[in-house]
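Batch manifest, entry 17 of 40.
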Amino acid sequence: MADPFLVRSLALTFSDGHRLHSHQHAWGQLLYAARGVMRVMADGVAWLVPPAQAVWLPPGAAHAVEMRGGVAMRTLYIASDRVAPGQGEDLPATCQVLGVAPLLRELILHIVAVGMLRADQADHARLAGVLLDRLAAAERLPLSLTWPRDRRALALAERLRQDPADEADLDTLGAAVGASARTLQRLFKEETGLRFGEWRQQLRLLHAASLLGTGLSVTHAGLEAGYSSTSAFVSAFRRRFGVTPARYRA
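Output type: structure tokens
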């Protein structure tokens, strides 16, 4: 028997630091934080989801979620047959951060308030159609960072994730994880596509973006991410995201 629902929804609130361990769903999932920032790990990639963005997870994508700040999570589950290739909606086949324009935001919140969208109700079917259209048209955003797989490089990456402002050089970091600087450079390039210095900068900028998403000032976000100069932070942030930190925060 066909599933009577087109879209299911869930609204949950989490405290800072709460983690949802790796799991997956048979339906496609849209993860949106009405408040707070989520860090989603899927397929060896870290996805940052601040307010005004959402992460799209195709059916079957294993993922873990970490909360930064108090998070008001609003989740939509979309029937897998509605997001399958050839259905007309150009939804990403892989995990992707999407921009949430005002109309899409109101759609998400309205559907969560409704609870479920049934296939046998015409108004629900129309609402699901608008949702899929808006998701297909949503801007894809560069808020991800590939994680290394080698245990030594991964240990280093986790150390820096805990403290992105850590100023230790690669020789010092390598000694702590049992690998030479040369080996780590090779591993990061092979496994993430970035040289270590580039990867570290991307991590810092994503961390800064998450802090801005919680309302922290531009100056403090830059300092927390390891930038001693606000001007250097603003310049690097603009190159990465195409907007200034102040504009992004707004």
